[in-house]
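Project channel, design review

CF: Before we commit to the Clostridium aciditolerans constructs, I'd like one complete example in the thread so the newer folks can see what an input/output pair looks like. Taking DNA mismatch repair protein MutL.
RD: sounds good, go ahead.
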Amino acid sequence: MKRINILDIETSNKIAAGEVVERPSSVVKELIENSIDSEAKNITVEIEDGGQKSIKVLDDGHGIHPEDIEKAFMPHATSKINSINDIYSINTMGFRGEALASIAAVSNTVLKSRTEEYDYGKETSINGGVLDYIKDAGCNVGTTIEIKDLFFNVPARKKFLKSSSREAAYISDILNRLALANPDVSFKLFNNGKKVLNTYGTGKLTDAIRAVYGKSISDNIIAFEKHSDISSIHGFIGNAEISRGSRNNQSIFVNKRYIKSKLITAAVENAFKSFLTVNKYPFFVVFLDIFPEFIDVNVHPTKSEIKFRDDRGIFKLTFDAVHEALRNSLRNSFDIPFDDEIREKDEESNYIKKEISTIQLPIDLNTFNESNYKVENYGNNKNYECNQENNSLSNGKNDLKELSYNAADSIKESEVSKQNTSLDINSNEGLSEQSNLKENIGTGEELKEEKIAKFPALTIIGQFRSTYILAEASDNLYLIDQHAAHEKILFEKYKKSIQENKVMSQVLITPAVIELTPEDYDYYLENSDIFKKSGFNIEVFGENTISIREVPLILGKPDIKNLFMDMLDNLKNMGSGQTWEIKYNSIAKLACKSAVKANDSLSSIEMKTLTEDLRFIEDPFTCPHGRPTIMKFTLNELEKRFKRIQ
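CF: and here is what came back for DNA mismatch repair protein MutL:
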């Protein structure tokens, strides 16, 4: 029978380090939060090799009292709380007293600190949790702490770290969040001697957002604010133009503490989508200020999760604040008056004035004979003429018949005119979706080579609502979603090109220059091979800036910036490397963006080419997103629907 042992301090500190110090970014977060709690106004972070080799944090805060230097690295040593009751009213970033002890247990740590009342400070060195020395040292007011060789004595943890660039991106991300939460503090980040972040501590959140995300985002944000009895919320939400394919640009702060909250995220996104139906995630920075007794921050060692006493109230407060801000923004853009009562009364009176009446005309189905009417087709104009040969119908029925057929003729002529106009415009522009369809699909020989048709050759009947292609073969009716079908054709063609390293690229007349955040730039550098193999020619164009000179030929004329950012977001969501899953999702997005869309009129030749190409691809029945591309209706099914057979 095993006996119970009391773990020594060294072992318990290493175990605690596994919870508190997950990676270099965790170390940076804990150290900066200590600097913020010391009321520092200037914080500088210097990292080497993604923080694995060295992390150095300098601040100008109050510093540590000389007699407390040794205590600072003891387990559960803290200046933030004195008793258990203080946990329920915490206003500081840290309070557990675990961070410094855990960090020192798995690294070589040197700390220098001086308070204002002393002319000199103290320096201490701890190697793997063991104290080396404490001595007097000359230093500025504040604290400087340097962490070297993180996880040198915990190889199991060290081998699970990502690449240096990825770890640096994590550090940059957490520093960005802390800079947003503290716009009155100046932050600087140096990665291998290169400055990647610099905020100025002006106290304005808009200045911090611009320093972190750039001008394009800061120019497209909308402020919101709302208050209740126990809490208040304020911040900024971005418009549809800066929405992204991931939630990386979403930040939530509760009492200036960066957290992750599904509740608040859902409230903001629901309010956003109630106005702007965009299949992307909105940019937002949310600050919730609430009395400490109404939340519990002691849920997780990293303090990244919070429990609210009133979830429903927080959701409603957040939703209403964002909803009102978006509504007012849209009103401003369309010059809509803000007086709701007058506007609603006017609308109500307008609706009352409108009377809608339904008239049922008499129709004698028994006297209608299909042979009494002759329909003649006059070529592509589809002008139909109905000749009445039977005069036995009453005048009312004759008028009804003439009215219905004239209306049908009018609708058909209008549709034909619209199609002809659309085709004329498309033929003049040369960059339309139809021309892309012809160029991208070609003659179909490339796809049909050495492949077997998955369904029989189809005879085109026509196009329904410029979205669905109607075709027939034998006794079957086929309905094809033109967008889904073209998307799958492009997907398989592009996938094959990548697999065989035969992606054709087109040179852009004007290169697309994109300024990235430091985090996005690091992700691009780490995954530049994926973009290269996908047909992109991208060059570095200055600090955190790239120049896209070539794009895959199959794309036609894409929105290059959004396409690049979508692929980058996909890489963030899926992880880096040469995995097929990343390429699959990226190619699916490329194919979706360049395929013909619903409501695009196609000629008979284009519809025939599309269906022929669809026959010979590997899996023609579903698009890359899983939607069906083609449906078959047998003659037997149709006759049952029309009650011709039982």
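RD: helpful, thanks. Residues 214-336 form a domain with the Ribosomal Protein S5; domain 2 fold (CATH 3.30.230.10).
CF: The radius of gyration is 33 Å.
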